[in-house]
Write a structure and sequence with these properties.
- The chain is α+β, with helices and mostly antiparallel strands and 79 residues long.
- It has one domain (4-67).
- Helix content is 32%, strand content 27%.
- The chain is built from two helices and four strands.
- A four-stranded antiparallel sheet has the order 1-2-3-4.
- Strand 1 (4-7) and strand 2 form a beta hairpin.
- The chain starts with a strand and ends in a 12-residue tail after the last helix.
Length: 79
Amino acid sequence: MGLLSKCIFAITTHHTSMCSLGKDEAIISINTLGVIEGKLPPRIMGMVSEWASMHQDELLADWEKSKNLEPLEKIAPLP
């Protein structure tokens, strides 16, 4: 199963991450880890929430880098 998470910085100035799986996608706040828009299957949303909570500081750091058009750091997947 492939789950793709990518930061969107060209569209919004809010700290958000977009997660996609097939036709399902959600925009999630990096600050609160709450869903802003969209929907993922419950099991996938749980995995995304777990991963994002483990790497929230890294996500915020990458967000800041993206605003300056700097290369992003890789973030480890769930173990």
